[in-house]
Amino acid sequence: MKRYTELSGKYLSRRLRRTFYTLLGVALAVAFITAIMITFESIETSEIRALEESVGAYHGKVEKATDSEILDLSAHVLTKGLGIQKIAGSIDFPEEKASLLIEEADGLTLHLRGKRVTEGRLPERPGEIAVDSFAAKLLGISSKIGKRVSLNINGNERVFEVVGIISTARQESSLSRAFVSVSAQEFSAIASKSEVAKNVYFTVDAENKMLRIAAQKVASDLELTDRARYNGSLIYHLETLSPVNWPAVVLGLLVAVASMVSIYNTVHISVLERIREFGLLRAAGATPAQIRKVVLRESILVSVLGI
Q: Do 204 and 128 belong together in one domain?
């Protein structure tokens, strides 16, 4: 043995049971702190996801946009994501005081509106259709794929096969609006006989505190303020989020302090039990600083191995 610090490894290997329990305490402390951080992060993420499914994931919306306006929106420096909803024609249900709108929309557009395909897929060919749960209720069919439904669109009776079921956004059902999605080819045929309205949903690349200002700037720069709408519920929730998850930090600190106290007590007891050994080391010429290094090295070894 060339150095006094080598005693640390020899002592730990000689007291395997105590070393094991100390390592276990450190490992559990690290695991608890990690679990707390992950749990609170998951809760925050799930809250945001639930809100997005309720009111949509978009930050801003431009109604009845032209093709040139859509190009300008997609090219704006603050625009992060963009989805286009095309609507051509509708079917009224007077008794239910509701309307069924014929649309073409991709997966991103559905996501920005707080919707998703819950079963099946989006239409890809003529004669295929995807319905949201509210539309299925209006049409008197079950929310299952494979069903056939007849729709009178612009005076033409058509039979479609349901290939997808789409969730219903709360904001759309509250307006008594149901949607059925058709393929791009089918939509082109319908659009040739009716007026097409294009609604653009977009997100902005900005910090949470600046989302509202950034979305308003996009609309202002392109002179679309009169037709722009903003997702106030989502933006407000994101604005109020703290960049630091304080509950997780506080709990993590409590666990860390409790763990350090426990480890300190273990090391302290170990030191008290070894006073005689330290006395022999002093008699052999070891200085107090060298003995402190031995104890410190043991603590560092246990902490590193535990982590």
A: yes
